[in-house]
Amino acid sequence: xxxxxxxxxxxxxxxxxxxxxxxxxxxxxxxxxxxxxxxxxxxxxxxxxxxxxxxxxxxxxxxxxxxxxxxxxxxxxxxxxxxxxxxxxxxxxxxxxxxxxxxxxxxxxxxxxxxxxxxxxxxxxxxxxxxxxxxxxxxxxxxxxxxxxxxxxxxxxxxxxxxxxxxxxxxxxxxxxxxxxxxxxxxxxxxxxxxxxxxxxxxxxx
Length: 206
Prior knowledge:
Helices cover about 30% and strands about 25% of the residues. A 7-stranded mixed sheet has the order 2-1-3-4-5-6-7. With about 210 residues, the protein is α/β, with parallel strands linked by helices.
């Protein structure tokens, strides 16, 4: 019997790859819905945006006659010296069509003169929202603390990873292996919580 498919509300290939690893042991497979139309996101909270995207994809699948599970993520970078910006608007920082490399350059420019260390505290935040094929909804949240590096470092990851320094390992997220990042990231924390909820709902083995 084939495992059920969970459609992910994203057009970000990097994010989907991370989720595939984080949920590799889950009793389902992840996929993208080719006709997914992303809704206009708000600026209130990650949780609200994740729910908005999940509900939009759920409705689109229903309209197409495909009752299925959906999973959505909303995440962002919060920098203490910038009063929490870019935060929930991370994906719009500098403009919705601006390449991530330019966003990273702009953020580093905003922090010019701010000394390395505690003064450049930052954190990544992630909210996950799952809707099953009956319409029931589950939500989880995760965060990871770090600092903004002086310059870009590393070739892996995506978004702000090359400038997000993870002090316990002394490297940016873009310098970590996929395995290392998927053990400590904000998305890993939120995914772990969601897996725990789903695992506890599975019927016990006979």
